[in-house]
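Same chain as my last thread, 295 residues:
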Amino acid sequence: MKKSLIVLVAMAFVLALSLPALADVDVTGTVSVAKDKEVSEMVSIEKAHYIGVKQLATPTNSAEAAAVKNDVNASNIVTEVPVPAVPPTYVDNEIVESHILVDPGHAATPINKNALIDGGSGNDAAGVTGINQSPGSINNQGNAVSVSMTAAGKAFLHAEAAAEKINGGVCSDDSGQTLSNSITATESVRGNKIDAALVGVDGILGVNQAAGSINNQNNAAALAVGADSIAALSEADLGLVNIGNNSFELAVQLTDTITGGALANASGIVGVNQSSGCMNNQANVVAVCAVSSPF
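reply #2:
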């Protein structure tokens, strides 16, 4: 009996040791956190788009304008010398002009050649205006204008303006002979002037003034206009040649002047050439195609 009691007490003690312990605990603390972050980012975007469109259309109408001018001066002679007055002579494109003798026994007055546009001449002109003045000798001048248009659809437009100017040259018979021009002038006064004129011109204007000799001057304009057209092509060509020419001028006064508000407020296509000298090639060449097209 006593032994059994001891065993029970021992078992109770072991069980007491195996039971969980319960307790409430309050914990207070401070936590500090520091972090460094570095972010690097690169974005690269590259795009290439190639778009090609091919369209086949057959024109049913066309409008073509061509203005072409060719001028050649070859084997010409101009002589202006202070000798007693005699009428000008014309032999094989050779011009000999003398000074006008005022009184016998007195000095001759200089040969004076002037081209002048003034006094409001040509003001507010509209449309196509061409002016050529040549008090000089053996000059080629021209104003060539060509205009075409079509209102029909699916049209092809083409405008071409060309000018070729040649002073002198070489024989075409393979002889190699030079077709030269010759100028001899002494105590001459030559001048071109546009003064307070051609103001407010609207449209196409071409002006050539040549107080000198053996000059080629031209203004060429070609215009093709169409509505709802397929294609428009324009080209302007200019060729100028001087070969083997001779000029002997002594005590010669040459002036070219545009003054007094001349050509003010002009609009459109305006070409002006002035040459008080000799053997000059001058040209203003314009080609325009205007089209309104869905293509």
